[in-house]
Amino acid sequence: MFTERQISAMLGQIARQDVVEIGPEPTLTRVAALAHVAERYGYAYDRAHRTGHNKQLVLVRMYRDPHPEARAREAATIAAHPQAGNGGTVPGMRPGTAKPLPEAQEAVARLKDRIMLDVLAQAADKRQQTIAYGSCAVLALVLLLAGMPIGGLVGGLVGGAALAAFLWGAFRLGAVRRQRIVRRLIDAGFVPVRDETGGQRFLRPGQQLPGHVNPFTA
Checking DSSP bridges between strand 191-194 and strand 200-203, what pairing results, if any? Predict the structure, then answer.
């Protein structure tokens, strides 16, 4: 369920800023629904990343779309939902909930895909993989330097190998999930491009990457 405070806070950003941050939220479903509401006010999705303690929260960044169609969409939304954030209806959502109306379900699902793709890419970052596997190597080195008995040493090495295998499987599963999301987005008409960091992004036809928005930092 959305709170009036959440909607009011987001609309306050929209009224003042060309770049808004949505969240952090604990679930992709909620943050995707909020991102869809922002789209109705003429904003376009930029990127997302995990944040907070243990990276359990998702933060989304969006920017004001300069195209005339986006400005017309914003005007129509304001006219249709004048009391949004003040007890009134919220564009695309069932009253008082984060559940999209039937006509908004597809758009929210694709936003969720784009958010998930960014989150998975963050988890698959080469630096994180290096750190993960390096931790396994450090564990084995510590056991060796500690002069543990043979039995404990072997057990520790086996545990480190098992952890490395688990991490490899997790990274591989993430790659498969990303491939499936990419296919859904392409089938829905999104265009794959590379951003300034070399990361893969998916834009709606005619949409351009915002040159003024800096990438998130970990």
Answer: antiparallel
